[in-house]
Amino acid sequence: MPLVRFDYQSSPRAAMGYSFTLLLGLLHRLGLLRDYSADVEEAAQVMEAWQAEIGPAVPAARNAAKSQAGRLAGRLPVVYGAGFLAAVANRWKTQFNENSKHWAFFEVLPELNHNAVVGLGIPQSVRDQVTVLMLRSSMDHPRVQVRWDVTEKLLRREGVTAETVQGRGKSKLAHMLSLIHFNDYVSFYLAMLNGADPSPVEAIAFLKQRLAEAGAEIA
Q1: 20 to 30 A from 81, CA-CA: which of 25, 110, 113, 182?
Q2: Which tens digits make up the pLDDT trace of 47-98?
Q3: Around Cβ 167, how many Cβ atoms within 10 Å?
Q4: Does 46 fall in a domain?
């Protein structure tokens, strides 16, 4: 069978640049997608520019990623995403889990407007410890923009802390990848505040081992 292979010594979450762009190129070669090479180039430039603002050498007073990690320490992040940023919200959630060893959840707009907004206030002890992170883009549909504004008002009305993080760039791909890149730094800095090593995922290793043992017993 035809095979596209890459070798990069890291966890899958740290190899996204390789796995994602290879798949993008492959699907283009197969005629299933248009050529996104210009979008990839723009996204890389946007990420490089943003990295200069959020890298380890930049102090917290001028570093948005460090500042956000500081505000999330000891709190429960719930990430909201809509449309093409819904999957990015999921990525934020999993990076908080795996990198920061931190509880996190994600919700998708407009679905969350049909259920989640009804339960914002109870239990109060949870509400007071939640920070909602709204991943927004200037390229969101106008109707989605209205939903964002109204949803933010609902959150504030219920006393829920909410923050907006805007994607950067001129293409949807740049907005997606720039937000992913930004959160990679946020989740790393949060890991440092948690006193956690971002690399190992001991709980997953434990789960796989026990599942394998259970499978052998069943067989």
Answers
A1: 25
A2: 999 999 999 999 999 999 999 999 999 999 999 999 999 999 999 999 999 9
A3: 25
A4: yes
Cα end-to-end span (Å), the chain: 31
By annotation, the residues acting in catalysis are: 98, 114, 208
In the chain, the DSSP E strands lie at: 76-82, 105-109, 130-136, 161-166
Question: What's 186's domain CATH number?
Answer: 3.40.50.10490
Decide if 140 is inside a domain. yes
pLDDT in tens, 145-196: 999 999 999 999 999 999 999 999 999 999 999 999 999 999 999 999 999 9
**Cα 215 from Cα 213, distance rounded (Å):** 5
Q: Provide the domain count of the chain.
A: 1
Question: If DSSP codes are grouped into helix, strand and coil, which group holds residue 12?
Answer: helix
CA 3 and chain centroid, separation = 29
Range of the domain at 106: 36-198
